[in-house]
Design a protein that fits this description.
111 residues, alpha+beta, 2 helices
Length: 111
Amino acid sequence: EHQYECREIRVEVYASDYPLTDPADDDVSAEANTNSANTTTSFIRAFAFVSPRQFETKNERLAPSDRYLGLIRKGARDMELCPDYCTWLEGLSTIPENCRGSEYYDVKGVD
């Protein structure tokens, strides 16, 4: 559909995340540092899919659809992400899929 761009990103991983990551994994950087809170962190390689700018909505404060946020919430629970993050996701507002107005299709377009 859209021609998403795949970008490699570097994600900071905290010691409390290690049950979810394998420090022996090739994608976990040997680089580690201690931050101001005296917490050791490492970095992992990850990939993000980015929509082309012309598909971004002009209004950046639109609520996501029930289906979209539902998929993110389910993924967070299935991956056993931090309970505080899952609770935060549950508190976000959504709109029913069939209630999106024209503002959801008013995109930035090509500059």
